[in-house]
Amino acid sequence: MFRPQLPDTPHPPTTLTTQHQVPMPSAGRPLTPYVGAVAAVVVVGVVLTALLAAVAVTAVSVAVAAVVLRSLVTGATRR
Fold first, then answer.
1. 53-69 burial by CB neighbour count: b if 16+ within 10 A, else e?
2. What are phi and psi of 58, to 5 degrees?
3. pTM for the complete prediction?
């Protein structure tokens, strides 16, 4: 009673059409020489990003150490 009714499957056409692709002529120079330059730019970007992250982490840790030392020094002089 509540079973779904499946539609009739359409039959594919019996004649197959093929499309011929015309090879596109290359416009200008090939991109092969630029692969090395792109890889070098990516590597330099990754290295600079890692250095920036290291400097930021070092700055945060020095700031935390300075706050702790300042609180220790001011706490010792008040006693």
1. eeeeeeeeeeeeeeeee
2. -65, -40
3. 0.51
